[in-house]
Amino acid sequence: MACLLESPLRISVLSEVTATSRHYVDRLFHPDPQKVLQGVIDMKNAVIGNNKQKTNLIVLGAVPRLLYLLQQGLSSSELRTEVLGSELRTEGAVVLASELRTEGAVVLDSELSTECAVVLSTECAVVLSTECVVVLGSLAMGTENNIKSLVDCHIIPALLQGLVCPDLIFIEACLRCLRTVFISPVTPVQLLYTDPTVIPHLMSLLSRSPQTQDYTTQIFSHCCKSPEHQTVLFNHGAIQNIAPMLISPSYKVRMQALKCFSVLAYENIQVSMTLVNVLVDGDLLSQVFVRMLQRDQPIEMQLTAAKCLTYMCRAGAIRTDDRCIVLKTLPCLVRMCSKERLLEERVEGAETLAYLMEPDVELQRIASVTDHLVATLADYFKYPSSVSAITDIKRLDHDMKHAHELRQAAFKLYASLGSNDEDIRKKITETENMMDRIVSGLSESSIKVRLAAVRCLHSLSRSVQQLRTSFHDHAVWKPLMKLLQNAPEEVLVMASSTLCNLLLEFSPSKEPILESGVIALMCGLTQSDSSALRVNGIWALMNMAFQADQKLKGEIVRALGTQQLFRLLSDPDTNVLMKTLGLLRNLLSTRPHIDQIMSSHGKQIMQAVTLILEGEHSIEVKEQTLCILANIADGNTAKELIMTNDDILQKIKYYMGHSNVKLQLAATFCISNLIWNEEDNEADAMTGCQERQDKLRELGIVDILHKLTQALDPNLCERCDTHVRAHYVVG
Asked: Helices 489-502 and 477-485 sit at what angle, rounded to 10 degrees?
């Protein structure tokens, strides 16, 4: 909703606006400043708790006039102090200059003073400006459309400009209004960072009063949405300026300071490493946080302090085995999961705990045996129950609307708990109706719940036992395949990653998944713009191809297409390249399959191998590529593609002498397969074997094998010694 409406629209809207609302706006244009002030005060009283009245006044154009009066009051106050003795000074009054005119404002100068002009005393100017800000703040507490209208009228620059006024009450009113505007999700937070002088000035206001501390830290917390924002606040001294507020006598101030630190520290190593060394009244900041999460503190404070310590721990500033984490933070977060807590507290507690222990198996084990956590989380799916103890109808209605957040949090925490330990996974799947709940979660209307459910499924799918039992018994592959047909990218990434595990050779789900059209689905993912989806698509194909029969391998090659296969071999993402090499390695296994594929695509494959071995790739990529060459060398006819390619042979020779043992072993494995001959009863085969050995001797590869029998690495030494003794007579 714009502040200034076009004429036709304005007429149609205004026809529905009451005369009373119009009266409030009309009074803002009265020539008597005292009546204008009284009009603003009456407007303030009229809009309190009345969203309809707020909307009417905005439609009638109250906001531009209020902003004009605000700026007029500020200018009057400034001129009163700046132009004393000048021609414009009058006894107790100042007339606005022409540069203060704005769209929709009344023209004011000494000669054109009309019934709409307002001549203000200094005292009246400050009071009027303050009351205008209070009304604007009240309008901001209405609907999101109200906020949009205020932002469109440039309320934020006007309020930020007002912060330079020396009057503390006015500053507090501006900050309170800014706080109300910025906490709305529709307000662009970047508006706070447009002028580089704003953040330093806000920092300077922190020491003015408890109110400026409260409102300013709230503004920082709500406007810190990215690492760049964290850096700006950090560089302008946020930690040094906010830390003393943690011991303020005001609970509000302490709480807002704590919230601000939790936002600053989230996934930020620089901030977390600084926080861990900060002293507040002689105590380390971590000790202050620990005191704040004690049971005798308000739940809000306990939770936020636990979040601060969690974020510092995840950033590496606090060890995971530190007493403040193991004995204080983790137990506090587990307490927040109990059914005695409010819904939002249970959600925040579970999600923070999941984040805390996600990378650490020991914390997962401790949490799993703390206060029956695994069983406690099962209650998240039963809330609110038919026998709920909630007697507050509004609270019950709220919880019914947000019950899905509990399920989402439970899935997240189960996923974190079961990400490493087999016993914990078993404990989770044996929890009452757990697998049924996961399957149901995969088809929930909430995308966030679906994502959390598939994350939980992915975590449990790392268990061989669960793949063979619970996953098979509940046919979880069916809703998973359905989810893959149409889902947001984030869900697709996690669902396809889970499917990769279900396609492992020992999974009973592999066969029915193969029969459901998964090959085409995964081939489609390899063409995605998302590297994560390309990785998962090719990973799934790699798992399908492992020890597969020739029919299935042929289906994979046909569905993927040779062009796409070789395109993936030049993918800039190393993970995609590695999985593609893994697929190729699995396709090129068992001699008949090797010979068949190389007879059709040998030229392209050898070109791709050459490019990779010549390129600037990691040791792991080149090792995998040499292993593919070793598989090719194991073919009956395919090995000739290597023996007739001197460039490839020279590369194998080079990597035999490489400084990295892994590459030496892989290259030696190639030579082993080239000279090895299992069909030694056939004279032609023996002849071919001897010819290959002779050529390798001519190239100097045999000499390298001899040298490597003295290698320091025992595996390399043993392998080369075996080859030399089996195929070459020393001396």
From this structure: 140
Output the pLDDT for position 315: 97
State both tokens at 335. 């307490």
Q: How many CB atoms lie within 10 A of CB 642?
A: 25
pTM value? 0.84
CB 307 within 8 A of CB 273: no
pLDDT, residue 401, reads 84
Pairing outcome for strands 283-284 and 279-280: antiparallel
With vertex at residue 671, the alpha carbon angle to CA 668 and CA 674, rounded to the nearest 5 degrees, is 155
- At 396 the pLDDT is 78
Which run of H or of E encompasses 280?
A: strand 279-280
Q: Could you count the other beta carbons within 10 Å of the beta carbon of residue 509?
A: 22
Q: Do 146 and 55 contact (CB within 8 A), yes or no?
A: yes
Distance CA 207, CA 590 (A): 76
Residues 212/172, Cβ–Cβ less than 8 Å: yes
The stretches in the chain having pLDDT less than 70 are: 1-19, 76-122, 384-391, 677-688, 723-731
| Pick from 123, 97, 125: nearest CA to 110 | 97
Closest CA to 22 of 13, 35, 33, 31: 13
Strand partners, 90: 93
Residue 93's DSSP bridge partners are 90
Q: What is the pLDDT of residues 269-309, one digit of tens each?
A: 999 999 999 999 999 999 999 999 999 999 999 999 999 99
| pLDDT at residue number 73 | 77
The DSSP secondary structure of 176-227, one letter per residue, reads HHHHHHHTSTTS-GGGGTSSTTHHHHHHHHTTT-HHHHHHHHHHHHHH--SH
Asked if 215 and 172 touch (Cβ cutoff 8 Å), the reply is: yes
Secondary structure of residue 666 in the 3-state scheme = helix
216: which 2 tokens? 């300013």
Q: What is the pLDDT of residue 727?
A: 57
Determine the 3-state secondary structure of 90 from DSSP: strand
> Which 3 state secondary structure label does DSSP give 94?
strand
> Is residue 276 a contact partner of residue 284, using CB atoms and an 8 Å limit?
yes
Q: Which residues pair with 484 in a beta bridge?
A: none
Rounded to whole angstroms, the Cα distance separating 536 from 524 reads: 11
Element containing residue 279 per DSSP (H, E): strand 279-280
Question: Cα–Cα distance between 109 and 92 in angstroms, integer?
Answer: 16
Q: What contacts 653, CB < 8 A, 6 or more positions away? A: 667, 699, 700, 701, 704
Query: How far, in Å, CA of 726 to CA of 346, rounded?
Result: 68
Where residue 121 falls (left for φ over 0; alpha for ψ -120 to 50; beta otherwise) is beta
User: Is the CB of residue 364 less than 8 Å from the CB of residue 357?
Assistant: yes
Predicted confidence at residue 671, as pLDDT, reads 86
pLDDT of 76: 66
Residues shown for the chain: 731
Report yes or no: 336 and 409 within 8 Å, Cβ to Cβ: no
CB contact at 8 A, 598 and 638? yes
Cβ-Cβ contacts under 8 Å for 223 (sequence gap 6 or more): 182, 189, 192, 193, 229
Q: Is residue 264 within 8 Å of residue 309, measured between CB atoms?
A: no
Distance between CA 294 and CA 307 in Å, rounded?
A: 14
Closest CA to 347 of 299, 418, 386: 299
SS3 label, residue 431: coil
